[in-house]
Specification:
- By secondary structure, the chain is mainly alpha-helical.
- 81% of the residues lie in helices and 0% in strands.
């Protein structure tokens, strides 16, 4: 079981499309309505494990105010409006898809922000802080941005979104914090960090592919009636991510040293698509939520691929770790 989960996590760029296809097939040959009962437990499975490793106390460590401020300015002052513009251009007649694109842009950072920053040998401490701040600010800001930008086109259930954010973000955050402290107390910090910490993200991945499967199954007949619809999402998503990478890279390159620059890039480009999926599937009803979730599921494919490829170019863009040390030393 653990081996399967680990494979799903490592091969997320393939896991998501496979479960999308399986969901569509299931929805064609079986009545998928009973799957609606799985949305809440799968949502909890998706969010709670990622919260266990979230180090909330890192927020209170100072010393990198400039990079933190610029990261959140990009996250909330630029990217949502770029996504909104893409929605207006590409999905003028599909308001729920446009809303899904907006939701995918409104929740910055995830556990993968920290992971990819580590792979690229960036500033991990800054990335952890960006993750916590971005998650909290994004959770609080999402209902207001959605109402402000899309409220005249789509009915935005403000109270329902706030309620679901409390249930799927802040409750798991508190439970995750308690779980981590309890595990460290029971098994010790060394054993927790060596043996347990790396296992939790795999369970989140199981929740992600489960939600994707359910969303695709519920919309399978609509998708097969117009199969090109999923492919049509790739162009606006690609523009959104390329624009994000370019802006963040330029800001990082000219304003920060290597470690902070890499953290800023991954702190702005990586979106918490799991929570965006959870909000879509729980706050907007099963039918609307499934449609909104389509483009969020497609965003996983581009995001994972783009993040992996960017690691290969960080030394060319920002210089090597050795060069950075020489400049600082």
């Amino acid at each position: 079981m653990w081996t399967l989960l680990a494979v799903l996590q490592r091969k997320l760029v393939w896991s998501i499309p496979i479960f999308m296809i399986l969901g569509i097939i299931f929805g064609v040959f079986a009545d998928p309505n009973f799957l609606k009962t799985l949305i809440i437990p799968l949502t909890f499975l998706m969010v709670y494990p990622m919260m266990i490793n979230l180090q909330i106390q890192k927020v209170f460590l100072g010393g990198d105010y400039k990079v933190q401020l610029l990261t959140q300015l990009i996250n909330f002052g630029v990217i949502p409006f770029l996504a909104f513009g893409m929605g207006r251009i590409f999905f003028a007649n599909q308001p729920l898809i446009a809303l899904g694109l907006l939701l995918a842009s409104l929740l910055p950072t995830s556990g993968m922000t920290i992971s990819w920053t580590g792979f690229a040998q960036g500033n991990l401490s800054a990335a952890i802080k960006m993750t916590v701040i971005g998650l909290i600010l994004g959770s609080l800001a999402t209902p207001f941005y959605a109402k402000w930008l899309m409220g005249t086109i789509v009915e935005i259930p403000l109270a329902a979104i706030f309620k679901q954010i409390v249930i799927i973000v802040f409750l798991p955050m508190v439970l995750g914090f308690i779980t981590r402290l309890s595990l460290i107390h029971i098994v010790g910090a060394d054993k927790y960090h060596k043996n347990l910490k790396q296992k939790f993200p795999a369970f989140s991945t199981l929740g992600v592919v489960g939600i994707v499967f359910v969303a695709m199954a519920l919309k399978s007949k609509d998708i097969l009636a117009n199969p090109i619809v999923l492919l049509s999402f790739l162009v606006p998503l690609a523009i959104l991510y390329i624009g994000n990478f370019l802006l963040s890279t330029l800001v990082g390159k000219f304003l920060f040293e290597r470690g902070d620059a890499i953290a800023l890039v991954y702190g702005t480009v990586m979106r918490n698509l799991s929570i965006a999926l959870a909000i879509a599937m729980t706050a907007f009803g099963k039918e609307q939520g499934s449609e909104i979730a389509l483009i969020i599921a497609m965003a996983y494919i581009i995001q994972v691929q783009a993040a992996a490829w960017y690691v290969k170019f960080t030394d060319k863009i920002f210089g090597s770790v050795e060069e950075a040390r020489l400049q600082l030393g």
